[in-house]
Specification:
The structure holds 2 protein chains of 2 kinds. By secondary structure, chain A is an alpha+beta fold. Chain A is built from 25 helices and 21 strands. By secondary structure, chain B is of the alpha+beta class. In chain B, strand 3 and strand 4 form a beta hairpin. In chain B, 29% of the residues are buried. Classes of the chains: A alpha+beta, B alpha+beta. At the A-B interface, strand 14, helix 7 and strand 15 of A face helix 1 and strand 2 of B. Strand 14 of chain A pairs antiparallel with strand 2 of chain B, so a sheet runs across the interface.
Amino acid sequence: MRYAETGYNLEIDLARGNIERVETDPKLTELHLGGLGTSVKLHWDRVPPETEAFDDENILVVSTGLLNGTPAFSANRTLFTFISPQSGLLAYPMMGGFFSAELKYAGYDKIVLRNKSPKLVYLWIHNDKVEIRDATHLKGKGALETQDLIREELNQPRAQVAAIGLAGENRVFTASIEQSRSSASRLGGGAVLGDKNIKAIAVRGTKDVYLARGAEFMTLMDEVTDYINFRNTNPIPDVMTILSGIGSPQEMKHTDEKWHTENFMWGNARTRRRDFWSKPNEENWTNAQLTAIQRLISCFNCPQQCGALVAPPDGSSKYMMKCFGKLTYSMAAYVDDLGFNFRILQRATEYGVDSFSTPQILAFAVELYEAGILTDKDFAGCPSDKEGRFFWLLDRVAHREGIGDILADGVYYAARKIGNGAEKFDHNTIKKHEQLPLKLGMLDPIYYLMYSTNEKISITQIEGNFPQAAFPTREQREAFVRDWIQVPDDRFKQYVLEWEPRGDKSIPYFPTPEMCSEIVDWMEMLHNIDDALGLCAGMGSFCLKPPYHIHNYPKLISAASGMDVDEPGLKKMVNRSRNLHRAFNNRRGMRRADEKPPEDHWKRRFPELEEELLSTYYKFKGWTMDGVPTRERLLELDLGYVAEDLEKRGILKDGENKEEN
Amino acid sequence: MAKIKKKIKTIKIDADKCNGCRACEIICSAYHATPKYSSVNPARARIQVISHRLKNIWLPVFAGEYAPAECMGRDKYLIDGKEYDECSFCRASCPSRDFFKEPDSGLPLKCDMCESDPALEKPKCVEKCLNNVLIYEEREEEVEEEVRVEDVEIGLEAMINKYGLDKVMDTVSRISVSKKA
């Protein structure tokens, strides 16, 4: 009997239409935990390094996490892993919603999709019955629309459906996979699914998920529940509202956007508008939000309400929204009216595109037009007003029409294809991927490392447990660390106590490179645990003082799965997967030279310190100075076969095996 | 007839607050598993959140009586501009839909308010609904002590009315002879 997990994967060969239910090796769970960990292992074993995103060999793995389907609050993430058409590396965008639990109840931990279907299809998984069904009648349908159409067609109102829109069908590099109120957006999972000719995956499950020691698990969950209730009634003082609570940033609830609108950049990550939050603008934004949002909603088994049901002001169909997407289009288009964002996001959601990258791509195009690099010919038929222009550009990108065909590959590739100086306008990408539109003054050493080194390549989901900035007064720092039960070691409290906003003990030199390495490693580890368990980062790795942390994860995992996992054991498991992921990307060519934030991310840069930070971190992680895991580190993590592979390929060279090198 | 006090247990459902997380379904199925908390399966839950997300409908419904056949009427409710489907408010475990039934055996499920010994303070779904959609209430009502007529007696009365006393007695005698033989 398998506990917490089902012990079965669905293996689907889309070219042959072959479907197999395959029992998995329980040892893999002991080694890699589940979710991201076990998915990375599948990619390492099966995908040769020369594989490109749209090759048959690029498997796409839809994965649950180890705790999905258990009573663990907020265990609802579904992970998609594939080689990204944008970064060329192993991407793992995730979504909340309801899909992963339903897949577990249907009896599967993962769906492994290989090759391509000869025509557009959708998958229908109903417990043991799995079908590949024709989807030609759904071609071009919206990502949300498709979900309801499939439920109706199957007469299965309780089926959960993940779908792509037109953008995915057209292999737009920022195409998302949408499900209910959630989407797996980053790095083009929708494009890979579209390339495989899969319009949607529908699932309905009515089987049991077993707990090894259920009563013990529930006692642990009672403690988690108490802490959730405590945190929901005790927001953290002295930090921005958005950082004070738990869950994903409460963008649907809070209307005060002074901080985002005045500190994040408008346009193509270009302009800071320090005086935006005037009375009239505040009124417009507040009214637009309160009018459009009909109800705050949750993902599966989560008490937080990070999403919202939205009725757009123009009367178009309702849709669901979450997080920062609330303002990315308005800000990218320099449109002061937030109503515009609620309108255009409806269309963008149905097309199925990432609401971080896409607005920046459109803003990039507008900049190129204003700079004369793109011309009236490229913009023939485009309205001249800001709003109309964005709608027009969005349509072109999703349809891959005209200039939209080039823009659909994202800023990095579009800039190089357009040429003529366009490359200079690609100023906000890391590893070819659009980042948060944020430009700051002083180099932040912690963020420098997170930006540079994490495989997620999406800054907003790497940070979390450590405060974003020093508290101004000693009293505030002492108050913050007093009940900080989540720290893996008390020395992190000391770092916070010593950290000053200005002077010797402030950024960029404090925390020191060694301290920064520890802090980043801790936060990254938490994300890796959440991503293996299928837990929402909003309740663990992505917020201050979360209900899940390194001291209760091992107990929950043990009680749910029956494996005996302690803190060092858990750290080793995720460290193993972390290094395997890095080795996979190293094998695809990723090296130190690729690990850098956008040049203009901070005004004040410190090249020597930055090099020292990176070297210190690499050493801390047990990587060579080129960012490749050393033989020693790999052996420690039972990854000798990886060391051999990297050596055989000349990626790990003689003499590079020791950490001091 | 004498008056007696009866404890009435109710769960008030503040549906406007429901965010559709289905924590109630999860805990219900785990609590009623054997052994307790050994498994989870919302399809076995005695509460189901009926949802039509884009219609802004999230409605927790508790399992009630078993209905052997579908009902004739399929009413629709229009409340605050939202159209609720025919069965939205119905608690019956009935052939027309796939919930409030054990998924493997098809046997009907019914909410038992988590009755247990020792008694819980409140049903588990109420406890785990952190948004207070489900509110547990107890009240005492004075009811007349009724003399309950046994089901068999009701049945026999009906048979006698229809077929006459002699015929029923003859039939009962004949069956009892053949059963005892």
